[in-house]
Every structure is written in structure tokens, then in C-alpha cells.
Amino acid sequence: MAWSLKPLADVLPWRRRRAPADDLYGAIVARARLPVFYQGLGVPDTLEGRFTMLSLHLFAVLHRLTGHGPQAPETARALAQELADRFTADMDTVLRELGVSDLRVPKKVRGLAASSAALMQAYEEALAKGEGALADAIAGALPLDESAAKAASGRLAPYVMTVVRHLEGQSPEDLYEGRLTFPDV
């Protein structure tokens, strides 16, 4: 009798490697949850404040993946779509955990997806115009009064610009494998 050894991941499905989009999304969520944003940079530690930080980090990664527009490699566009889908699934889970009824969740998720897409587009347009425009776009997304939002966004915009530049220096292969690093805050 001939023995054939299979890799452990083939025998034990829970040992399979996670998808790169899951790894990237996990890194984005972990970064967005850092206390420095809420304790030092003026972002409110609320559901809306955390959503804003998650959106900013997701934007930076999606910008890196699709920064060449239609000329972006198919692998990058596919990974960006998987990442966006992972974000949508996470929003579904969060809404359910918050007690939104099963009948209302799809409508709420569609609303969040539409507002997130508009927010990502606003960030993309602002990024092209520079740090001041990006600060204005971030201020518009923060759940704060105007003066507090301007103060916080003035601190966040340079950080986001640094993140975007940092991600541009990461190899596409690292991202395709789910490896993501962020610069210091």
C-alpha cells in the first residue's frame, strides 16, 4: 500500500490559508482601531468615528490597488473588488450585531455601500487636489461640529497622505498575498 501525505490544509479545512482580501481587511481594521486616532487626533470614539477611520484606511488601500484606473492589473482590480465585498459583509455583520432587524439590514447595507462609494470618490478627487482638499473631505465625513472636524481633519490629512505614499512603495505582490504594512502614526 502506497502512502500519500496531503498537506494539512487539504485535510483540515479550518487550517486553510485565509484569502488575501481577508488578511488585508484585517490589517485595515486593526489599524483603524488604534487608540491614537481617538485619543490623540480628535476622532470621536463612536460608531461613526470608527467608520470614518475604517473608510480612510480602506480608501488608501483601494487607491493603491486601483491607482492606475482601467490600466490597473486585473489581479489588483479583482483584489480591490474582494476587499470592497469584505467591507460590505462586515457592515452587514455590524448592523446585525447592533440589532437591526433582518428585514432592514439589506436596505441599510445598500445605503452604507452607496455612501461609502461616494465617500471613496470624494477622497479620491480630494487626494488629486492636495492635502488641503483632502482635509476638507475628511472634515465632511467626521461626525463632529465644524470647528472640531476641521481640527481633526487637519491632523488626519497629513497622515493619510503619508499612508498613500507608503502604500505606493509596497510591492503589488505583497498586497496580492495579503501582506500590508502602514507607516507610523
Summary keywords:
globular; 0% strand; 9 helices
- Uncertain segments are none
N-to-C CA distance: 59 Å
Structural class: mainly alpha
- What Rg do the Cα atoms give? 18 Å
Task: Please give a structural write-up.
With 185 residues, the protein is mainly α. It has one domain. The protein has helices at residues 8-11, 20-32, 35-39, 47-66, 74-97, 105-129, 131-141, 146-168, 172-176. The longest helix is centred in the middle third of the chain and has 25 residues, at 105-129. The N and C termini lie far apart (59 Å). The mean pLDDT is 89.
Secondary structure: elements and pairs:
Elements (H helix, E strand, L loop, with lengths): L7 H4 L8 H13 L2 H5 L7 H20 L7 H24 L7 H25 L1 H11 L4 H23 L3 H5 L9
Helix pairs in contact: 2-4, 2-5, 4-5, 4-6, 4-8, 5-6, 6-7, 7-8
Task: Summarize the structure in short.
With 185 residues, this protein is mostly helical. It has helices spanning 8-11, 20-32, 35-39, 47-66, 74-97, 105-129, 131-141, 146-168, 172-176.
